[in-house]
């Protein structure tokens, strides 16, 4: 059974059509990378997956059930801008997700529940290589370390689906390569299903088992907002890894034509 499905999925803002006619089926464990021109609805789609954007038309299903209209523990998210709280330590930033989830009124855990949450946070931080930085504050961390912390936050609740919105766009090339290796390892070890937006086509083919291109396939010059983007390419990279360079080049040419 598919994990995530879209059937005729659309997103409109008034008369402005952002996304239209999205139809897909994603199996558990796939790593879907998403590329496309700026403003074509990639982040809007990720927000619909997260539950912070409503659906205008069609269906978006997880295990054949409509996706909840709010974020949940089954879907973790990491943005390009580091989503860490400056007044909390590395450990505190990782703990807070579970504290807010389990103690909505106080936002704080006590006794055995806090000890269990702390053990889980230590495990997540060890997984991302921050076990020696527990008492540091975000301003004391490099960009790569801050993004490792954001990934630990996203994985704290053990989600099945991880949503990544250009998570490495602000990092230097050497650090990006380290982050590629980290995310690939976590994806395999934790059997995650990942949807990742990137502006780098080479990165999309290097990381993804499947590459989507969001673009408008129909246009009206007299009514530019009448039609939205859809998935114009859906490439199975895992089965055709040797063709990836030529496919990436073709997509880049199409996006700039």
Automatic annotation (TrEMBL):
CDD domains in alphabetical order:
ABC_NrtD_SsuB_transporters
Supply the alphabetized keyword list. Answer: Acyltransferase, ATP-binding, Nucleotide-binding, Transferase, Transport
Gene3D superfamilies documented for this protein: P-loop containing nucleotide triphosphate hydrolases
Q: Which domain of life is it from?
A: Bacteria
Task: Give the Pfam families listed for this entry.
Answer: ABC_tran
Q: Name one GO molecular function term.
A: acyltransferase activity
Q: Where would I find the ABC transporter domain in this sequence?
A: 4-241
Q: Which InterPro entries match?
A: AAA+_ATPase, ABC_transporter-like_ATP-bd, ABC_transporter-like_CS, ABC_transporter_ATP-bind, P-loop_NTPase
**Tagged with keyword Zinc:** no
The UniProt similarity line reads: Belongs to the ABC transporter superfamily.
What is the protein name given in its UniProt record?
Lauroyl acyltransferase
User: Source species, please?
Assistant: Salinisphaera orenii MK-B5
